[in-house]
Write a structure and sequence with these properties.
alpha+beta, globular, ChAPs, Piso0_004707 protein, about 900 residues, 8-stranded mixed beta sheet
């Protein structure tokens, strides 16, 4: 095999000197010795990091695909792609393992093999990663690759740990090649490391021979203009430290952007923990992000903000994406991990140290203001008010940053129920930023809160909604800039009579995450340890094994543009046949609601779980249904008809300007309702009508679990009959559990509801009670309850005591945690983190750990307490429509050797360590 095979695949090589790499020194002006002086604390693993091991259709496919995708980035802000780890293994061109591939595209099986390259018997396996630490340069790369391969370093030599070669590498007779690709979004280039490990069959007790080479490939529009800069171990040290910091920052940003949005995750993605696993590393990550704040406009901005715009101040022409971007979002996210507020205060001090020398106010006042809301310190509220005052009196307010700060003041005033004052400030914001969606959104909200519904509708009608005629020219199987090869093949095979993926291949592609047994307390896992000293990490046997064994259509994560859209995309044909056709029409991928939401976010699809917060159209849907819940549908339609001009009447008058149909109507003084708002009214009407019709049937009708699920999700989004909606979701979760499956969509929504109603006030500064500052969403249901003061407290109390009890929430949370770990999320996502954190604040970490243990014991197999107390946990389980025969065999959630209990306890411990002072 050629020594440059795959590594240079699809590239045109061009040698250049290191001195010509101007992009490496792009951030020189902000470099100081302290940037490189404090390394991350490396975590010592006794077992290798377990990752997916997905086979390519042909050798070098993923690397070539990455090269092509890099040329399509262009000049638009982009986060780039998740890091790729590719392993080329020699199997022999005539061997059974080489020739037999039972998971491939059907076109290849039909004889079309034109895509196969001259691979000399090599086969490629790959996975993706987010969160690699590159700060140490070559040493960091070596450490990470050795960790993946179960190698340990002793000086300059490498050995197999405990003389054990990983199973997937054993028996190889030729060298294998490991290629690591990582995109630096600040330098706009792809870094690649190529490690060739020589024959290993005789190397168990010898040092392993490794050859290393490196490349940096800047973005280019085509192959002809593409440059490839080559490095060896001797010359890689010439690469500027800023490049490694940029790689680390890029990976850190992608880690949390992808982790908290399943729609942006690609199959085979591993979320690494080392950048935030302890307080020292958390603060180090904050320091790196602060360094790159001036380059925030190079990163993505959430589609929920609408178009990028700017104020009219010519002296300060910065646009909104200088303050609203992925760097700021991730900085807020990791500061929230420390609920004492120390991390947020550290971030503020770093901003002032780096950018506010001899100044009180500066270019990042808005970011500082957002960070002030990351802790529950009551003193923050007073500091928040003084900071706004100091900023607004320091200079002109007619600039972008001042307008954004005024919007934060609007949220604060809404929290204090100073609605009229908030309205005055919101009007000023819309004057300074007339094209900013949030400015108009806050203005409409204020009109609703003061009960001026006519002006609220007029404001909604004037909102700068983005509705792209069609999304970018990408397919459903493209995720975050790359084609999801596993998803693509899975979809193709599911549309045929072929087995989607065999159990053996699935286990080979996605091995179960594992961990060293000593990490767990001796009394956490009973029975004999499996596979020697190794146990599964965060496992639930029913979910990890039984569910996939009997449901081949579920052998995939719920991510990407396909499976994250709706529960309907994860159903079997039998389950789909049990759902009312009207629900499929409203909640399927071709529903008008999902199409409008995806058009607004310029994406291929939209998810029923979060469409109300991911696009401007979705946020308007949320606002209109909020208005409907407050006013009532009939009254709202009456207001609309009297407020807006009838379009048919308008057309007649344009054709006959001298003819007036109704002399009481002054056509020229009435506003025209925008087409998108007319469509929105129709969509909301269809949602409400369908729910009312289906709800008119008996509540105990024998519906399937998936139908209860769709009813609950639809009812929550349209804000119809809150009590029944929550009951539907609980019934759905239990219906799936009774059949031995896991309700991902229902579990996520139940935890979100619990957070909004029960936990959102915990550790809240009081600055923004009705908004989630990280997720950019309004707690609209909570706001509706607060406006109905007579029923607010009684409803919340009933909800916490009778519906969403602590034990039920902990059980749901443990199952979601286990599901995420099964798909290699070694960092808990935002929902899991904030639920666990707020529960620890509300009850105490020791109590939560003991309660988790109690829930585990009560739901464990062969425990008589389980069946006896089932209805205490799930009072709606009788309505699931599940087979009574299946209930008896599935009357438990956990088995004796499940490790989810110990893993959940370790997460509580991790949260506690992040609050400790250094």
């Amino acid at each position: 095999m050629s020594s440059e095979h795959v590594f240079e695949n699809t590239h045109r090589r061009q040698k250049s000197s290191v001195s010509s790499l101007s992009f490496l020194a792009r951030h020189d002006s902000t470099v100081s010795f302290s940037d490189a002086a404090v390394p991350y604390k490396w975590k010592s693993y006794r077992t290798p990091i377990i990752t997916p091991h997905i086979r390519e259709a042909y050798y070098g496919q993923t690397i070539g695909m990455r090269s092509n995708a890099q040329m399509e980035i262009g000049s638009d802000p982009s986060l780039g792609f998740s890091d790729l780890v590719h392993i080329g293994k020699y199997l022999g061109s005539k061997s059974y393992l080489y020739l037999h591939d039972d998971f491939n595209a059907l076109r290849r099986r039909s004889g079309d093999d034109t895509s196969r390259k001259d691979d000399d018997g090599y086969v490629g396996f790959y996975h993706y990663e987010d969160g690699i630490n590159f700060e140490g340069g070559e040493e960091a790369i070596e450490n990470h690759i050795c960790e993946l391969l179960n190698l340990e370093k002793n000086g300059s030599d490498c050995y197999w740990k405990d003389d054990k070669i990983p199973e997937h590498l054993s028996g190889l007779k030729r060298e294998f090649v490991v290629t690591l690709c990582s995109y630096n979004l600040f330098a706009r280039s792809d870094f690649r490391a190529r490690y060739t490990i020589y024959p290993i069959n005789q190397a168990k007790k010898r040092s392993v021979k490794i050859e290393k080479s490196y490349q940096i490939i800047p973005n280019a529009p085509d192959m002809r203009s593409r440059k490839v800069y080559n490095f060896s171990s001797h010359t890689l040290g010439d690469v500027h430290q800023n490049f490694w910091l940029g790689l680390t920052a890029s990976g850190l940003i992608r880690l949390f952007v992808h982790l908290d949005d399943p729609g942006k995750q690609i199959s085979g993605l591993v979320s690494l923990f080392s950048l935030v696993d302890k307080k020292e590393n958390l603060l180090r990550s904050i320091k790196i992000l602060v360094k790159f704040l001036p380059y925030g406009s190079a990163t993505d901005i959430s589609a929920s903000y609408g178009a990028v715009t700017a104020g009219g101040d010519s002296e300060n022409p910065k646009r909104t994406n200088s303050y609203r971007n992925s760097i700021v979002d991730v900085l807020i996210r990791i500061c929230q991990l420390d609920y004492t507020g120390e991390a947020a205060r550290y971030a503020i001090s770093e901003i002032k140290r780096r950018f506010y020398v001899n100044k009180t106010n500066g270019d990042f006042d808005y970011v500082i203001l957002k960070l002030m809301q990351c802790s529950g310190n009551a003193e923050n509220e007073e500091e928040f008010i003084h900071f706004i005052h100091d900023h607004l009196t320091a200079g002109s307010i007619y600039n972008t940053q001042s307008a954004l700060i005024l919007q934060e003041q609007v949220k604060y005033l809404v929290s204090k129920k100073k609605f009229n004052l908030a309205l005055k400030v919101a009007k000023k914001c819309s004057t300074i930023l007339p094209l900013d969606f949030d400015a108009w959104y806050n203005l409409a909200l204020c009109y609703i809160l003061i009960k001026d519904y006519e002006n609220a509708l007029l404001t909604i009608n004037s909102m700068p909604i983005i509705l792209n005629q069609k999304s970018k020219n990408i397919d459903i199987d493209h995720v975050s800039g790359l084609k999801d090869l596993y998803l693509s093949t899975l979809i193709e095979r599911s549309n045929s009579n072929e087995e989607i993926i065999s159990e053996k291949t699935f286990k080979n592609f996605f091995p179960s995450p594992q961990e060293y047994l000593s990490r767990y307390e001796s009394n956490s896992i009973r029975g004999e340890p499996r596979s020697g000293d190794i146990v599964e990490k965060g496992s639930i046997h029913k979910m990890w094994h039984d569910m996939f064994l009997f449901n081949e259509h579920l052998r995939h994560p719920i991510i990407g543009n396909q499976f994250y859209q709706s529960p309907l995309l994860n159903c079997s044909s039998k389950e789909l046949g049990s759902i009312n056709p009207s629900l499929i029409k409203l909640c399927g991928p071709n529903s008008k609601r999902m199409i409008m939401a995806s058009r607004s976010s310029a994406s291929v699809s939209s998810s029923i779980l979060d469409f109300t917060k991911t696009s401007t159209w979705g946020r308007c849907y949320d606002l209109l249904t909020l208005l409907t819940a407050i006013v009532g549908w009939d009254d709202l339609v009456y207001i609309k008809e009297n407020l807006f001009q009838d379009q048919e009447l308008l057309a007649k008058n344009l054709d006959n300007p001298d003819y007036i149909v109704d002399k009481d109507i002054n056509v020229n003084r009435r506003t025209i309702c925008e087409n998108w708002l007319e469509q929105l009214f129709i969509i909301v009407y269809e949602d409400l009508r369908t729910l009312m019709v289906l709800s008119s049937h008996e509540r105990d009708s024998n519906r399937s679990a998936i139908e209860w699920n769709i009813l609950g999700l639809l009812g929550w989004s349209v804000k119809y009959n809150l009590k029944d909606t929550i009951s539907d979701l609980i019934t759905s979760v239990m219906g799936f559990a009774d059949s031995g499956n896991f309700d991902y969509f229902g579990s996520v929504k139940i935890l979100e509801i619990y957070d909004e109603f029960i936990l959102s006030d915990i550790n809240n500064t009081g600055i923004s009670l009705f908004h989630d500052e990280y997720e950019h969403k309004l707690y609209s249901h909570k706001l509706i309850l607060h406006l109905a003061e007579n029923s607010h407290e009684s409803f919340i109390k009933a909800l916490e005591n009778n519906y969403l009890t602590l034990d039920f929430i902990l059980l749901t949370l443990m199952k979601l945690i286990s599901w995420n770990v099964r798909w290699y999320q070694y960092v808990p996502n935002h929902l899991v983190t904030k639920i666990l954190m707020k529960l620890c604040i509300k009850h105490d970490p020791v109590y939560i750990r003991s309660r988790v243990r109690l829930v585990f014991e009560q739901n464990k197999n062969n425990n008589a307490f389980t069946i006896k107390n089932k209805k205490a946990f799930f009072p709606f389980s009788s309505n699931t429509g599940a087979d009574n025969k299946s209930k008896k065999s599935n009357d438990y959630e956990f088995s004796e050797k499940d490790t989810i209990l110990s893993y959940t306890e370790s997460l509580v411990e991790w949260i506690e360590t992040l609050k400790e002072n250094l």
